[in-house]
């Protein structure tokens, strides 16, 4: 009877993902991963032919994690784009290394920022449509104006320079929405 494989693809990916979440994607090396799993690098390269394949899986898992975070994020704000903005800023605060991987890394494959944000749920498309239904003449342009502010807030959260409360953030976003809609 053949010996059961103890180092599975799932184990490798989960450990690599945890390492990326804690220390950043650049910390995910074969040696560091093998040490954390408690094996040599051989099982890693039996499952993945190279580290880029593993990075692709880590990125997909991070994408799924962000989409789940967005879907479960609670806010009672009805103004278009604000829920998405709050979720994005809070994700940067709470999951800084995954945020960097998803939104500030060259390891995101061929996905554009828009594709990533739109995700499985079509979040951006829904928000643009809601803005249009509310009478906005250029909802895509409005999204871009709001997004520049939202992205800046998230980047400031990464460096610890973002000190606005959620209420103040909502107020700023509502002002931008009203001023540009």
Structural commentary:
By secondary structure, this protein is an all-alpha fold. The chain has a single domain, classed as Tetracycline Repressor, domain 2 (Orthogonal Bundle). 69% of the residues lie in helices and 0% in strands. It has ten helices and no strands. The longest helix is centred in the middle third of the chain and has 22 residues.
Task: Provide the fold topology.
Layout lengths: L8 H15 L6 H8 L4 H6 L3 H22 L9 H13 L1 H8 L9 H6 L4 H11 L5 H21 L6 H15 L1
Helix pairs in contact: 1-4, 1-6, 4-6, 5-6, 5-9, 9-10
Radius of gyration over alpha carbons? 19 Å
**Gap between N and C termini, in Å?**
69 Å
Question: What global shape is seen?
Answer: elongated
Q: Biggest sheet, in brief?
A: none
Mean pLDDT: 91
Percent of residues in helices:
55-70%
Low-confidence stretches are none
Per CATH, the class reads Mainly Alpha
Listing every helix as H and every strand as E from the N terminus to the C terminus, the arrangement reads HHHHHHHHHH
**The CATH topology is what?**
Tetracycline Repressor, domain 2
Number of domains: 1
- Proportion of β residues? under 5%
Structural class: mainly alpha
Q: Output the CATH homologous superfamily.
A: Tetracycline Repressor, domain 2
Proper CATH architecture: Orthogonal Bundle
Specify the number of helices: 10
Number of strands: 0
Brief account:
The chain has helices at residues 9-23, 30-37, 42-47, 51-72, 82-94, 96-103, 113-118, 123-133, 139-159, 166-180. With 181 residues, the chain is mainly alpha-helical.
Please give a handful of descriptors for the protein shown.
Tetracycline Repressor, domain 2, 69% helix
